[in-house]
Amino acid sequence: MKKTIISAARVAAAGVSGLAFVAIVGSGAAQAAPQDCVVERDLFGASAVCQPDGGSNYVLRVECFGLYASGPFPLYGIGPYHSLSYPFTPSGERVGAACTGMGPGVVAVTTNAYVEVYQG
């Protein structure tokens, strides 16, 4: 029994260490398409600013890894998922999306963030 507890503690510590590594490596600014957008990432989310172009719609997609709500409370999952900003037509204002706030007790870090373009 004691060996099982020690093994479980080692696996948990390795998982937390891995999340910390992803958080440190995944922080910073990223270039996004189209080239008139700037995406800024942090540990728990991202934001984007795009210049007006006369009609394209943009969505900020933030890729996350961690604990997330996988169904009705209290169902949780561990792994990758994504968070989206509301669709917006750029006007030079900042829009954001986060890995937190996706359910009670959610703990996740940002692994990537980019802007998707939808021509309308």
Strand order of the largest sheet: 1-2-3-6
**Rg from alpha-carbon coordinates:** 17 Å
**Element-by-element helix/strand order:** HEEEEEEE
The largest sheet, given as strand count, sense and whether it forms a barrel, is:
4 strands, antiparallel
Number of helices: 1
Mean pLDDT: 74
Counting structural domains, the number is 1
> How large a portion of the residues is in β-strands, by DSSP E?
35-45%
Strand count:
7
Q: Assign a percent range to the helix content.
A: 10-25%
Q: Structural class of the secondary structure composition?
A: alpha+beta
Overall, the morphology is: elongated
Distance between the termini: 61 Å
Q: Which stretches of 5+ consecutive residues score pLDDT under 50? A: 16-33
Compact overview of the structure:
Residues 1-32 form the signal peptide. The chain has one helix at residues 2-25, and strands spanning 28-31, 37-41, 45-50, 57-69, 76-84, 95-98, 107-118. 20% of the residues lie in helices and 44% in strands.
What does this structure look like?
The protein is built from 1 helix and 7 strands. It is an alpha+beta fold and 120 residues long. Residues 1-32 form the signal peptide. Keywords: Signal.
Outline the secondary-structure elements.
Elements (H helix, E strand, L loop, with lengths): L1 H24 L2 E4 L5 E5 L3 E6 L6 E13 L6 E9 L10 E4 L8 E12 L2
Antiparallel strand pairs: 1-2, 2-3, 3-6, 4-5, 4-7
